[in-house]
Amino acid sequence: MRLAIAAGLALATLAVAAAGHAAEAEKPKAQSWTFDGVFGMFDRQQLQRGLKVYTTVCAACHGLRHVYYRNLVDLGLTPSQAKEVAATKEVDEIGDDGQPKKRKADLKDRFVSPFPNLQAAAASNNGKAPPDLSLIVKAREGGADYLHALLTGYAEPPKDWKDEEGKPKKLEGAQQYNKYFPGNVIVMVAPLAAEGQVEYGKDDPKATIDQMARDVSAFLAWASEPKMEERKRTGIKVILFLLLFTGVFFVIYRRIWKNVH
Amino acid sequence: MASPMQPAPQPRWMRWVEQRLPIFSFAQHFSEYPTPKNLNYFWNFGSLAGITLVIMIVTGIVLAMHYTPHVDHAFDSVERIMRDVNHGWLLRYMHSNGAAMFFIAVFIHLFRGLYYGSYKAPREIVWWMGVTILLLMMATAFMGYVLPWGQMSYWAAKVITNLFSAIPLVGEDITNWLWGGFAVDNPTLNRFFSLHYLLPFVIVGVVVVHIWSLHTVKSGNPLGIDIKSPKDTIPFHPYYTVKDTFTLGVFLIIWAAFVFFAPNYMGHPDNYIPADPLVTPPHIVPEWYFLPFYAILRATPDIFFINAKLAGVIAMFGSILLLFFLPWLDSSKVRSANYRPAYRVAFWLLVVDCIVLGFCGANPPEGAWLVISRIATAWYFFHFLILVPIIARTETPKPLPFSISEPAVKPAAARA
User: Fold this and answer.
1) Residues B280 and B295 occupy one common structural domain
2) Residue where a domain terminates, one of B249, B284, B319
3) What is the reported pLDDT for B4?
4) Are A156 and A208 in the same domain?
5) In this complex, do B260 and A139 lie within 8 Å of one another by their Cβ atoms?
6) Same-domain pairing of A147 and A38
7) Is the pLDDT of residue B83 over 70?
8) How many structural domains comprise chain B?
9) What does the DSSP 8-state code read for residue B42?
10) How is chain B split among helix, strand and coil, in percent rounded to 5?
11) Which terminus in chain A has less CB density within 10 A, N or C?
12) Cβ pair B272:A138 closer than 8 A
């Protein structure tokens, strides 16, 4: 009974942790991902398609600098395939003569960001630098569900769209309406605009906007947390061991205490 | 070492060491420590907190081998730990979720103390050491959260360090001194790293004194009555070592559930965005274990000549500092709330109040939430400063059992 109260108190304090994540836009619908749940794993074909979507569509504006080209081996690419992906970009270095020069990116390099610095990124994008996507799934409430919703959530603003003071609202300049972006106004043009925008293989599902959104969201979930599968695998072993350990010690506890009182 | 401890004929080498440094009789003291035999599971949280402290120090020291405390590199170094350091992700998640588990254990341990009168004579110093540990934990956790230099790290540092500017006359200067500059920046991060590494060892020292003073007066028990004879007690080992190991298992399972399957549940997504002094997060919130205090901080309006900010700071620190005075605020000679019907009600109201304050802290101090925050804050101070002293002086407690070994002849009837 007291253990229940103690557990209840602990749970109540944890419930507080979940409170207070405010959102003004629509909440993203929960999707089912292959990596959901205790036994969830990434689908490597999906991750490779997502990589293609990233390099074709997103890399023009968004960096991925916490990922190294060598990490692509995790997706099932061979080292030479990963090197090919790297070789499409260039990296600065200093030559033996002390002069700056460029070389092709290699496995050891980070993903090359499209802009040399924040100011260039902002200047090319209506004053706001497009965020690096390495951690985007962990950095947004709703994670991969939110990403997928955002990418498929572009729409015409509602006819009765009003601001906080009740005055009718209209899109200005480069603004776009998105159902899921906080505040509903986003400056990024819908990146996935046409079916087949990214070329998928013969054996892949059709490259619909929804499919491409799904694939790139899964890829970015991997990019945010490449160790997820190892984490869950280890977790199962650890918790099974702990259950055994706790069970054994419960029995020992009862035995030792049998004659007390 | 089984109990009873080895009598006179010890191995020679042990006697040699013992003569020079009495570690064996020291260990024997802990093994044989006479503990009341009626302790319930709420008494397990002290050891859970202690073990959590050790795990936090071990994971923290290894993390510190890979972390760079510079504003340009901190965030990246944490990502390097997550991606490239062997089992870095495990260390990091154990450490971040461990902080939460540490506070869960300590809050339950504290509320156990409130319910069973563990702060009453002769355990006042045990209690003071405990409150000191809580304060040190809060400072440590606050500084630790700044280290990854995410958005929440930076803005939490900014909000909380700015509070010191509320101190009249010297506030501004103190704050600049703390910052190492005129804003939260690299000197601030660097010194937070230094202090975050230091304070846990200060906590260890206070824990030693905490246990030392406890062992001097012996442990309390759910009945709240003194140990009358050895019949009331059992040796700590093997009885409580095995019970503590069992509850450690349960505790680790909960901890592991978070680390391996919901490692970011208790965190805030904004902390995965690198710190940007030019972009304020829509809602600045601390980790859940600070939410009740955050609510108190933001609840106060201007009070006479004290501005709202200063009033909030005073109220927030006051909410913890008043705990030092509890042995005198609550002057009832009866320790356990099991025998104090009025205090029991007040206790549970306080629990609800603290949980409500937690929810308040998670929401902006506007509209209905502000009203609730103010009521809940007022109730918190009313509980300790008015209600508890009045109850202590006017309550009719239930008759206490004779001893731990022989509780009241008809315990069921005594409660009727």
Assistant:
1) no
2) B284
3) 52
4) yes
5) no
6) yes
7) yes
8) 2
9) G
10) 70, 0, 30
11) N
12) yes
B331 touches chain A (CB under 8 A): no
Per-residue pLDDT tens digits for B134-155: 999 999 999 999 999 999 999 9
Query: Is the distance from CB of B71 to CB of B185 less than 8 angstroms?
Result: yes
The Cα–Cα gap between B266 and A20 comes to: 12
CA distance B16 to chain A (A): 33
Range of the domain at B311: 291-393
CATH number of the domain that A117 lies in? Answer: 1.10.760.10
**Does residue A242 sit at the B interface (CB-CB below 8 Å)?**
yes
Residues of B taking part in catalysis: 215, 219, 243-244, 287
CB contact under 8 Å between B351 and A9, yes or no, is: yes
Give the C-alpha separation, B242 to B219, whole Å: 18
Q: Say if B3 is an interface residue toward chain A (CB within 8 Å).
A: no
The crossing angle, in degrees rounded to 10, of helices B308-321 and B124-146 is 130
Say yes or no for a CB contact (<8 Å) between B243 and A234. no
User: Does residue B156 share a domain with residue B68?
Assistant: yes
Evaluate whether residue B408 is within a structural domain: no
Whether this prediction's pTM lies above 0.90 is answered by: yes
Could you tell me if B102 and B79 lie in one domain?
A: yes
For residue B10, tell me if it sits in a domain: no
Q: What is the mean pLDDT of residues B202-223?
A: 98
Smallest CA–CA distance from A247 into chain B, residue: B246
Global ipTM: 0.91
Tens-place pLDDT, residues A204-214: 999 999 999 99
Cβ atoms B225, B128 nearer than 8 A: no
Q: Select from B42, B266, B355 the Cβ nearest to the Cβ of A12.
A: B355
Contacts of A100 (CB under 8 A, 6+ apart): A92, A93, A94
The domain in which residue A235 lies consists of: 229-261
Q: Which among A16, A230, A246 has the least Cβ separation from residue B288?
A: A16
Of A6, A139, A231, the CB nearest to B42: A6
